[in-house]
Write a structure and sequence with these properties.
Blueprint: H1 16-33, H2 37-41, H3 46-58, H4 62-88, H5 94-126, H6 131-155, H7 160-191, H8 197-207, H9 211-221, H10 223-237, H11 240-254, H12 269-281, H13 288-311, H14 315-321, H15 323-350
Length: 352
């Protein structure tokens, strides 16, 4: 792949501009396509289309643009996504946050712990994989995808190759879930007559890998599902810090060589900012017209982040991963869909 050397970007143009322009173009094009009835009938919203378009470009012509666009694409993937999630709070109120409530927290805790422990058992005991790779895939599957993998890497002293394999694995199955979850919704409604979009949103937020993927999958089901999914996901993201503290202590005890240096744990502050904005929105201080403009801006930012996520999803990384990491990712993916569904139904029945 081309060398990422920012001084060699397009002469006279700031490094971020080409990548931001590319993701913005993809976002606008997919927003236009999403209005066609044929596309809408298949459940493909603007966010899903942005990821698909990004993947297509990322694995074809983007290699020639990489050196010029990578800085802006990474900015959209990381910073704009977090800004978009924070602004998403303007669509919600404190009452909606409370509606997720203690049952949502319990669901997230049970899903996270069961998924990570299952990853350790399957990966280390059954598949005989390297423990660090297993921990990374387990963290990515149980908490928040690639972001959790990157945060967990320094804690377990993982090599760059381990991180790359884990990121490729969780991105693959998380992206597949964007298309699968709307179909699960349509299949589940006749089987579970009492199922609401709100409940399905909590299921989505508690079981899907990435924040971006949760937004896209919830958006495809409906606004109520999207709102509940984002709240449930933010509660899950906030569990990253205590998870890393516990895992770090376990690693220091199991791997003496890892106890020499302590890695500071980074708290996902954007998750707290999201809750704060939702609480502020509950005061109804901001005029409705301004809220509408903020939501339109938020749609663009989120679509740009989806496009960036697609542009950086390389199929070549999956070939390098090998069979066993992909098999572990697949088994955890199946558990999140089925086991996560059972957990959601059980907790919902308990708190009813």
């Amino acid at each position: 792949m081309a060398d990422i050397s920012l001084p060699q970007t397009i002469r006279g143009v700031p490094p971020l501009i080409p990548g931001i322009a590319l993701t913005a173009s993809l976002a606008l094009c997919t927003a236009w396509l999403s209005h066609f009835s044929v596309v809408a009938q298949w459940g493909f919203g603007a966010l899903t289309l942005a990821i698909v378009g990004g993947i297509l470009l990322g694995n074809t012509i983007y290699g020639h643009l990489h050196a010029h666009c990578d800085a802006g694409v990474q900015f959209a993937k990381q910073k704009l996504l977090r800004i978009g999630i924070v602004l998403f709070g303007f669509r919600l109120t404190f009452q909606q946050v409370l509606d997720v409530g203690i049952s949502g927290v319990v669901t997230d805790v049970l899903t996270l712990s069961s998924t990570f422990l299952l990853a350790c058992w399957l990966g280390i005991r059954w598949l005989k994989m390297d423990a660090r790779t297993v921990w990374l895939i387990g963290a990515g599957s149980s908490i928040c995808g690639a972001a959790a993998v990157l945060a967990t890497g320094p804690v377990v002293k993982a090599k760059a190759s381990h991180v790359a394999v884990a990121v490729a694995t969780v991105v693959l199955f998380g992206t597949a879930a964007i298309f699968l979850y709307p179909w699960i919704w349509h299949l589940a409604v006749p089987l579970l007559p009492g199922l609401t979009r709100h409940a399905f949103g909590i299921y989505t937020g508690s079981t899907l890998h990435e924040v971006a993927q949760v937004v896209a999958a919830g958006h495809a089901v409906g606004a109520e599902a999207e709102n509940a999914a984002v709240i449930a996901k933010m509660l899950r993201v906030m569990m990253l810090a205590p998870f890393l503290m516990l895992l770090g202590e376990y690693v220091r005890r199991c791997l003496p060589q890892a106890s020499d240096t302590k890695t500071p744990v980074t708290f996902p502050w954007f998750a707290l900012a999201f809750i704060a904005v939702a609480l502020f929105n509950s005061l109804h201080i901001v005029p409705a017209r301004a809220i509408a403009l903020i939501n339109q801006l938020d749609n663009v930012l989120l679509a740009m982040a989806m496009a960036a996520l697609g542009l950086t999803t390389y199929l070549s990384q999956l070939k390098q991963a090998g069979l066993r990491p992909l098999l572990l990712g697949l088994l955890l993916f199946i558990w999140l869909i089925i086991g996560g569904g059972i957990i959601n139904l059980g907790v919902s029945a308990f708190f009813r």
